[in-house]
Design brief:
The structure holds two protein chains of two kinds.
Chain A (H helix, E strand, L loop, with lengths): L3 H4 L3 H5 L3 H31 L6 E5 L4 E5 L4 H37 L7 H10 L2 H27 L21 H9 L1 H37 L6 H13 L2 H11 L5 H9 L14 H27 L2 H9 L4 H29 L2 H7 L18 H11 L3 H25 L1 H4 L6
Antiparallel strand pairs in A: 1-2
Helix pairs in contact in A: 3-4, 4-6, 5-6, 6-17, 7-8, 8-12, 8-14, 9-12, 10-12, 10-15, 14-17, 16-17
Chain B lengths: L1 H18 L5 E8 L4 H14 L4 E8 L5 H7 L7 E5 L3 H6 L10 H7 L2 H7 E2 L2 E2 L2 E2 L7 E5 L11 H10 L3 E3 L5 H11 L2 E4 L2 E4 L4 H14 L4 E2 L3 H7 L4 E6 L4 H8 L3 E4 L3 E4 L2 E4 L2 E3 L2 E5 L6 H11 L2 H11 L6 H4 L2 H4 L2 H9 L3 E3 L5 H15 L8 H12 L3
Parallel strand pairs in B: 1-2, 1-3, 8-11, 8-12, 16-18
Antiparallel strand pairs in B: 3-17, 4-5, 6-17, 7-12, 7-13, 9-10, 14-15
Chain lengths: 432, 392
């Protein structure tokens, strides 16, 4: 009986009285075998080369058309291949469960107990293992909508899927690590561009994060200062800017700072301070996007830091004053440590978000101004916007996917390191 | 058991509905630019009237001619059956196998369209799309109260007259489409297989780049494209490069001072050289994944035929590729289309432009606009531009 269970799933469970469970295992096995026989095996076979037959045409004399006969579509082959592999993995998990449960039932019978019936199994599932019931649906959703597309995207980096190998007319196929080699060293034009953009991406993330943080905190401190009147009004002014959707603010800024935008027109025609328009989005576009980012970022920091500032116990400041500490000393010894302690996780998430800050770049400069120092990229392009241009304008999906993976590695490294160094994680109890 | 049977029956019925829900009606999805939606509706109505035996279910989507490639390739199977696109996407479309070859009624389609338009729609001897317009180009608009018809013949004349009147002119050298004017004046652009080949870094290209810089430093030049030209002409601007779609606005502003002609000649390498341009047509393609190739082709054929091209001119002042419509008195009387036809004598077919062309040329133009090009780096920049155009 134990051997039969290796071939007919559920047989051992059924033999020891768990008929419904056994039947479910058996049905799963039949479904899987049918699926593999009719679709799965073929999917896997095609997956090895990502398709075999190209689309072609046959002349149809009656209709006077060159009828298109569809071939394999490498993209569909890739998707179905991934789905089939996931199905196989799921089946293996089921298979192992089948062996284990069969063995368990056998052990229980040998020990003189009766194995739990289907009803009892359902009961334990509902009561003792309710977390399994609750988490099953989200897990399936996660696998279907996040994990599988992710695998699909990752695999694309190992193919030659670009403009010249575009389904449905042409097939694309596996090329191993060629794309990674090309981007990191083998093709100087691409690798120079990649590392140059990576440097700017990191610079941007550091400056954008800290400028917003420092700017927002300074503003909050200033408004919080004793003697400043209408505190609530000042705060509301800044907070109102949050109510304006970010993309609207950014598009307005882009317009304002255009060569013939409002700022230049005022400076040139009404004030006469300049003769030529200042080219904000020209050679110094990097500075301009950093400043534009302040506009949309500072109010958020202001909001967050204001709350924290008001929470710092007043006694700390009073005793510091009695000890003769000046305002700079109290800021350095009380305010800043307190703020940093609470807002470091926020800072890190801001930093990671800025590494991939598509919105601010795309809506202000779209990566421009283009420069010949980079390959098909502009001075303000982050890795994420360069990736987008390569995919959308050049249909260079293989490079885009490869860059995507490299971006992930960069972001993951920085997040892991910084979260591990995080003070508030290590000294969780200190300030409570 | 009863429940199971009932469930099975319901499932089968549902399957049956999805499998054979559309055996009589012909569903056709048509994509075109926003401004053309009304036109497409009229075309669909008339086409349906011509085929009373068939029930058509037309659906329309807004996809501009410039975005067609990107949108269709997202998922060709669910993209439009019939879509309009700009001709420089033709090669990518054919490579991707997304276009149905034009075969039905082909003799008539070839005969009724201008040779240049048929050439553009044909690759390796096979015709892949239906020419719809022949107006995708640019030329020179000017304010005739400032620039005389003699001045406008040469760029030097335009610069001199503009400076005298304290005006400027626009010439968007950071728009790769227009930058081509300079490089193509004496240069060439072609294909080696699927690779773009250009010679913009030879002596002619170098001279053209120097001339471009000289224009930018003339004191009369201003950066800017359509928006700047339409806004400034008649007040701060003496004229500039523009396309047919700006004609109505500029004519309204200038009134009787409205001037329009081919691009001027420029002093390149010490002699007068006529500036070139890109000339393109808008095409209509039939998706190779369509369920109804015959109806889709016949509709594309009708949509781009004489009747509809005339209507398109009347509704939107779109320049026809149809020979008969081009000879129509009202088309001949349109000054912008006349200027376009004049410039087309010096133009380059845009069909042979690959996607890799645009970025590097725009980058070079941007370097010029930013004043970053000098005698020391100009040759290196041209070499790099050409290398990037030819691929990574």
């Amino acid at each position: 009986m134990a051997i039969l269970n290796f071939f007919v799933m559920g047989s051992r469970c059924a033999y020891y009285g768990q008929r419904a469970k056994g039947a479910l295992f058996f049905v799963a096995q039949v479904v899987f075998i049918l699926f593999m026989a009719f679709f799965g095996a073929n999917n896997l076979l095609l997956f090895r080369t990502l398709g075999a037959t190209e689309q072609h045409t046959v002349w149809d004399e009656a209709l006077q058309i060159n009828r298109v006969i569809r071939g394999d579509n490498s993209m569909i082959v890739l998707i179905f291949g991934v789905l089939t592999i996931v199905a196989c993995i799921a089946f293996i998990v089921l298979y192992v469960m089948n062996i284990r449960m069969g063995n368990k039932a056998a052990r229980m019978v040998a020990a003189g107990e009766s194995p739990p019936s289907f009803k009892e199994d359902l009961y334990t599932l509902w009561h003792d293992k309710y977390h399994v019931v609750l988490l099953t649906l989200p897990t399936i959703g996660l696998v279907l909508f996040t994990v599988i597309p992710l695998i699909f995207m990752i695999l694309m980096a190992f193919t030659n899927f670009d403009r010249m190998n575009q389904p449905p007319g042409r097939l694309f196929t596996w090329v191993g690590l060629d794309n990674f080699r090309e981007i990191t060293y083998a093709n100087p034009r691409l690798s120079n561009t990649f590392f140059s953009i990576l440097r700017w991406t990191l610079t941007w993330a550091v400056i954008a994060t800290f400028s917003n943080y420092i700017g927002g905190m300074a503003l909050a401190l200033f408004i919080n200062k004793k003697g400043i009147r209408f505190k609530a009004m000042w705060r509301s002014f800044f907070v109102v800017t949050i109510a304006v959707p970010q993309f609207v603010s950014l598009l307005v800024l882009r317009q304002l700072l255009n060569d013939n935008g409002t700022v230049n027109v005022i400076l040139m025609n009404y004030l006469g301070w300049i003769d030529e328009p200042i080219r904000f989005w020209g050679t110094h576009a990097r500075t301009t996007v950093l400043l534009a980012n302040l506009w949309v970022g500072i109010p958020f920091t202001l909001l967050i830091t204001t709350g924290i500032l008001m929470n710092i116990p007043e006694e700390l400041y009073e005793s510091a004053k009695l000890d003769g500490a000046g305002p700079i000393m109290t800021f350095r010894k009380i305010t800043l440590p307190y703020m940093l302690f609470i807002t470091t996780p926020y800072l890190i998430s801001q930093f990671v978000g800025n590494l991939n800050n598509f919105n601010v770049i795309w809506l202000t400069t779209a990566g421009q101004p283009l420069t010949l120092e980079l390959y098909q990229a502009g001075r303000t392009d982050l890795l994420i916007t360069w990736l987008y241009s390569l995919a959308v304008n050049e249909q260079d999906f293989r490079l885009a996917a490869t860059i995507g993976i490299l971006v992930f590695i960069v972001v993951a490294t920085f997040s892991l390191i910084s979260f591990n160094l995080l003070a508030s994680r290590k000294r969780e109890e200190e300030f409570s | 058991m009863k429940k199971l049977v009932a469930f099975a029956i319901v499932a089968m019925i549902a399957l049956g509905f999805t499998a054979c829900g559309n055996d009589d009606t012909v569903d056709l999805l048509v994509w075109g630019p926003l401004g053309n939606q009304e036109f497409l509706n009229i075309a669909a109505e008339r086409f349906a009237q011509m085929h009373p035996d068939t029930t058509f279910n037309f659906t329309f989507g807004v996809v501009g001619e410039g975005d067609a490639l990107e949108r269709v390739l997202e998922d060709p199977a669910s993209a439009a059956d019939i879509f309009a696109f700009a001709d420089d996407q033709l090669r990518d479309f054919v490579n991707a196998g997304v276009l149905y070859e034009v075969t039905r009624n082909i003799a008539d389609i070839r005969a009724r369209n201008m040779d240049s338009a048929v050439y553009i729609a044909t690759l390796d001897g096979r015709m892949w799309a239906y020419p719809q317009t022949a107006d995708n180009g640019y030329f020179w608009y000017y304010d005739s109260s400032v620039i005389s018809s003699d001045d406008v013949l040469t760029l030097d004349g335009i610069i001199e007259a503009s400076l005298a009147a304290n005006r400027r002119f626009t010439f968007p050298i950071d728009v790769a489409w227009v930058t081509a004017s300079w490089f193509l004046a004496q240069g060439s652009l072609g294909l080696d297989g699927d690779r773009q080949v250009v010679d913009f870094n030879n002596a002619h290209g170098l001279a053209a780049a120097h001339a471009m810089i000289a224009m930018a430093e003339s004191g009369a030049w201003q950066a800017g494209w359509a928006e700047e030209l339409v806004e400034g002409i008649g007040t701060t601007l003496s004229g500039g490069v523009g396309g047919t779609w700006m004609a109505a606005d500029i004519q309204a502003t200038l009134g009787e001072n409205f001037g329009v002609t081919k691009l001027p000649t420029a002093t390149i390498g010490g002699r007068q050289v006529q500036l070139s341009s890109f000339m393109g047509t808008k095409l209509v393609g039939v998706n190779s994944q369509t369920e109804h190739p015959v109806y889709a082709m016949d509709f594309a054929d009708f949509l781009t035929g004489e009747e509809m091209q005339l209507l398109s001119f009347e509704m939107n002042q779109i320049g026809p590729s149809n020979i008969a419509v081009a000879q129509h008195p009202s088309v001949l009387a349109n000054p912008a289309l006349a200027a376009l036809a004049y410039q087309s004598m010096y133009a380059f077919p845009q069909r042979d432009v690959q996607g890799s062309y645009w970025g590097p040329v725009e980058a070079f133009g941007t370097h010029v606009v930013n004043g970053e090009v000098n005698t020391l780096n100009i040759q290196d920049l041209l070499d790099e531009m050409v290398a990037q155009i030819m691929g990574h």
